[in-house]
Amino acid sequence: MNIEILLQEKITIAIEALFGFTPEKSMVQLQQTRKEFAGDVTFVVFPVVRFAKKSPEETGRLIGEYLVGNTEEVDQFNVVKGFLNLTISNHWWLGILEKAFASPSYGLTPASQDAELVMIEYSSPNTNKPLHLGHIRNNLLGYSLAEILKGNGKKVVKTNIVNDRGIHICKSMYAWQQWGEGRTPENTGIKGDHLVGDFYVMFDQQYKKEIRQLMEEGMAQEAAENNAPSILAVREMLRKWEAHDEETVSLWKMMNSWVYEGFDATYRELGVDFDKIYYESETYLSGKDEVLRGLKEGVFYQKPDSSVWADLTPEGLDHKLLLRSDGTSVYMTQDIGTAKMRFADYPIGKMVYVVGNEQNYHFQVLAILLDMLGYEWGRDLFHFSYGMVELPSGKMKSREGTVVDADDLMADMEKVARKMGEELGKLEGLSEEEATRTYKMIAKGALKYFILKVDPRKNMTFNPEESIDFNGNTGPFIQYTHARIRSVLRKAEETGLSVAVPFAGISLEEKERELLKTISLYPEIVEEAAREYSPAVLANYCYEITRQFNQFYHDHSILNETDPVKRNFRLALSEVVVNILKSGMGMLGIEMPERM
């Protein structure tokens, strides 16, 4: 049991015994003791003073004396004005260590047979461009969130919806038809998703050129944008695709297959995966049927041009287009179909969409539309809305070719990791094969940790060199500490030392006590990360316990400790910390090297 929950119960009993009344739970407020005062946990006395009918100092003193005399968890106390500072006994902290040492899965909750099933959608790429830095944040958040929920005893299905149809796909297809000259990934040596992305940029360049020409001829900008030859050709291509034109569908399949191979390679390199992949080309018709059903039932309405709309003004919103006048679908239509298919495929208890905050309105509308269509789970959809990620140089734009591709970024990160590691001599003594594998691990750890340590709801700037620093709040710092502890434990094993429990009768040094406090918080941190949908909670905890271990390691010897009881205790402490780091960082998708 968490020490604060236990103390709330004990303090409640003390107040009942001393003052004859039962305080409400909200009145027993606990917080971490401030560093300038002695103690571990502080009880704020003021809410109970009027019932005790004594001064805050006297009330605190009486409760403190009762706890020391009647509970084995509290050793000492002191009162500072209306704050009762409680010192937790060594017996309690050593019990935490024994529990954590005995359980390799300390802090985690196994999934039961009847555990809630959570489906998490992330990635959601378009097949007209490679994955970029923005996709990296999405994938890392989605994968980590899935692992954190698993750690909290949930059953999880990781899913991806590939945006493999629509006007944007046709832009790359049209450009390849016009200027591709038969180029393929095989005959160019270019990764498939990158090649298709190049044609998307090429289309945009041609489209802008046509708009300028039409405007120079006297056409207004909006009219030019709608009547440029290339955009008219692309709209016709989309219409043909939806009409199952054989030539158009064949081109679409070929170019998408190039992209899928490219995506799969990037996902493998990034270390993320999916249990189920949906394709909009397979779900949009289901959505279209739902919209037409809604129209027939009077839930939606049709304009004279045959387009279908939803009136959302009763919800304080506007009117939303669901089918264009030519009968083609929009994103919302597709998402309606995808949601329906997913709930038919799985007994979903919670549906989580990991999508950037620019789509807040979209998911607000999706939930309302599904509710209007009669799906009781519609309003319960959860949009995990996260902020944008930028580089120090600013924002990125796919159609202008100014994005940072995920593949290029990961390759560059590995180069930076190798350069900095070699300068610091971090991997001396490893074979070239081991060093290469470890540098990859460091590079990915740096990338993932730097992104995940930030509150997901905030915008962030990603700085590659800053992320790979071997000191400070970075992935490599935590990885290096993990490797250092593993080295200590290996040496202990080589010299025949093993850890024996229990650890009773040990007097704790300050740094050891601080570490045990932080270890005791791990189960609560895992729960909080899931409750808040925030991998950052877990990431920053991993940094804090790493920082504390390094301070402990600096001040106290482990293998050279002459007292065998203390040495035994410190080896156990080290093993628990290293297990927590592997567990916590593992839920962030970060591998931990054994040697660095």
Task: Describe the fold and architecture.
- The chain is of the alpha/beta class and 596 residues long.
- The chain has three domains: 3-88, Arginyl tRNA synthetase N-terminal domain (Gyrase A, domain 2, 2-Layer Sandwich); 122-390, HUPs (Rossmann fold), CATH 3.40.50; 406-587, Isoleucyl-tRNA Synthetase, Domain 1 (Orthogonal Bundle).
- The protein has helices at residues 3-19, 46-52, 56-70, 90-102, 133-151, 167-179, 185-188, 192-216, 221-227, 229-242, 246-270, 280-296, 331-345, 360-372, 406-424, 432-452, 464-467, 475-494, 510-531, 535-555, 564-587, and strands at 30-32, 41-44, 74-80, 83-88, 117-121, 155-162, 276-279, 301-302, 308-311, 319-323, 350-356, 382-386, 389-390, 460-461.
- The chain has a five-stranded parallel beta sheet, sandwiched between helices. Strands 1-2-4-3 form a four-stranded antiparallel beta sheet.
- Strand 9 and strand 10 (319-323) form a beta hairpin.
- Helix 4 (90-102) packs across helix 19, helix 8 (192-216) packs across helix 11 and helix 19 packs antiparallel against helix 20 (535-555).
- The longest helix has 25 residues, at 192-216.
- The chain is globular.
